[in-house]
């Protein structure tokens, strides 16, 4: 696919059909409509979507985190498989971490399938480290999840460090 312009914005209830469609494509229907409504409405949750600029209804990817004490617990990072390897996941992850910084959170954590090497590589580029494992975490096949952790996001040099890790500077 050719390069395209995209825009990240907070998700709202008006995006529910696009959210559910992307959830079904990426996860087979992980969360219900009511669960997404709770996420959108919760002040402790941040949901963002990346939309194709010339088609505002086309949700290419989405991300979500929960604010828990000083931590951003990333619950979803999903990209439509048609648009993999085009920087959408990185853009969403960067936006989620920046939003967590803006909220004053100090670290980020997430779980990822142990077999999902593409996602693990992305997270490692951002500086996430493996902190542990949740055995048989995924109900669909009993696969283990790796617990990944990123600390120090409030440090003054964090943005520069992240930019270096991502090869931006």
Summarize the structure.
With 169 residues, the protein is of the alpha+beta class. It has helices at 16-27, 33-41, 88-102, 117-125, 158-165; strands at 6-10, 45-52, 55-68, 71-79, 107-113, 129-134, 145-150.
Features:
alpha+beta; Aminopeptidase; 7-stranded mixed sheet; 5 helices; globular
Word description of this protein:
- The structure is a single chain.
- Strands 1-2-3-4-5-7-6 form a seven-stranded mixed β-sheet, with helices on both faces.
- It is of the alpha+beta class.
- It is globular, with a radius of gyration of 15 Å.
- The chain has one domain (6-165): 3-Layer(aba) Sandwich (Aminopeptidase), CATH 3.40.630.30.
- Helix content is 31%, strand content 33%.
Strand and helix layout:
Blueprint: E1 6-10, H1 16-27, H2 33-41, E2 45-52, E3 55-68, E4 71-79, H3 88-102, E5 107-113, H4 117-125, E6 129-134, E7 145-150, H5 158-165
The amount of helix comes to: 25-40%
Count the E strands.
7
Shape category: globular
- Would you list the SSEs in sequence order as H and E? EHHEEEHEHEEH
Cα gyration radius (Å): 15 Å
C-alpha termini separation? 26 Å
